[in-house]
Amino acid sequence: MYDKCQTNGSLMSDISCEKMERITIRLPRQQAEMLERLVEMGEFPTVSEAVRYAVRELIQKHSGQILRDREQISINV
What we know:
The protein is mostly helical. Helix content is 62%, strand content 10%.
């Protein structure tokens, strides 16, 4: 039995809510409208989920570089 929290119109368990950080971003109107359109088309359940998907893709794309940079920092310290 989980309590529910409200996140952009969808309910999430407390466990999910506790693991999520809230950040605020500013986007050009056209990008925000495109995200809303993706939701309207059924590609994503919420704009937040569309943004999370994009962030996951970005991190996956650059994860090798992030790890290499981290190793260089730890070697140089």
